[in-house]
Amino acid sequence: MYEMCRLVVLLIVKNSCGGLPFCTVFLLISTALSFTSCRKSLEADTTHKSQIKDSLVISSFPVLDQYIYDEEFLPIASMNWVPLQETENSFHSQIDKMIIFEKSIIIFNQKEMKLMNFDLLTGDYKFSYGQIGKGPFEYSRIVDFDVSYKHGKVYVYDDGSNMINVFSVRGEGIRTIPVPAKFKFRKVMIEGNRLIGITSAGGQFLKDEVVILEMDTFKFIHSGIKNKYLRPELNNIFSSNHDVKLHRCNDGIYITEYLNDTVYKIENDAIYPAMIVDFGTLKPDKKYLFDKTALPDQIGKTTLGIEKFIKIDDYLMVSYYKFMPYPMVMKYTAVLNKGNGLNYQFAGAFHPGDYVVKPIQYGFGSTFVAEMSNLHAEFEVMKSNCYRPEATCSSQDSLFIDKVDEYLNNNPQYFNPSILVYTLKN
Hints:
Layout: E1 15-17, E2 20-22, E3 54-57, E4 63-64, E5 68-69, E6 76-83, E7 97-101, E8 104-109, E9 114-119, E10 125-128, E11 131-132, E12 138-139, E13 142-148, E14 153-158, E15 163-168, E16 173-178, E17 185-191, E18 194-199, E19 210-214, E20 220-224, H1 235-238, E21 245-249, E22 252-256, E23 262-267, E24 270-278, H2 286-290, H3 296-299, E25 303-312, E26 315-323, E27 329-337, E28 344-347, E29 351-352, E30 360-364, E31 367-372, H4 375-387, H5 395-410, E32 418-424
Parallel strand pairs: 3-24, 4-28, 5-29, 11-12
Antiparallel strand pairs: 1-2, 6-32, 7-8, 8-9, 9-10, 13-14, 14-15, 15-16, 17-18, 18-19, 19-20, 21-22, 22-23, 23-24, 25-26, 26-27, 27-28, 30-31, 31-32
Helix pairs in contact: 4-5
């Protein structure tokens, strides 16, 4: 977390963006008082704001376009485009979750019930973890998986049988752990000998969305997160699902929640509020969703909370959706640079230095990953943006376009998503 105490930062940024002047930015960041530890179950409302360590005012961050900016905005050492190989066992239409471990990237497609291991450098398909069936290490309905970095094992939660199948990273089945019937999960994360689970309907701790359990014995340790922001008039639009999310960062596990501006962190087997994220508002007004004449400031207030919460080195990256007049939606990524104070947000993509950066889906260590879900369509957009007369393309852009062009000429029916793997400079 950032060690700040009512710090006022006056940031004046003057930058040439491919010939376009970047406006002067005055950024005010204020932090709240340090929090007092408590071990009781926490309600997800504003009564705990006095305990919050940090405040992130995304609504004050300037929105960058797709022109080329100075490298200091995000100093990228390398970008590797990785097409995920298509085989009979590795066809998939979308990536619901990805985790990098050693030299592999593990891809989960929940709709098609596939959990696949690909080579991180080449994208070659290696193997899958189990398959649909009723035999050993087979499953009926995977809802989530996680990797224990400490033990080098892959944990796959099967909601159908209410079991956790444990595999080696190489794909060998190790053991099966039955989950007590009183627990049902929508998401799971393994941290040491702890299981952090987001409960689903029918679970004993339904009033608390998140439970911390001892692995193997499922001994109850702690629970927390109650949703106070349900809006019945919006449930038919957004669903009544609280949509609690778990995020593994370099310094621990964080929790975010639908229509809640508080970010929580698990510390010492308990859940504490860690940060307030200010989007302007997280309580969307129904009229803005259907009013096609809504003003930009009204549209900008219609957000539902954090999708991705990623901490890499000196950077905090937060992705979220802005709802335009219904049914349009745009995904934004906000970047807080603790090192030099260049804080900003972008939609779709932006261009620091030589590399184009797409919306970020995963990050750990000094690596972060973006997804290209429809390569053919995105490739045409890249060419159009790069080769128009007023555009400024870097040498890396040209190399990237040539590489994708050659691949699609050799694989015209390519369907799988591909990924962009970035590493930051030290």
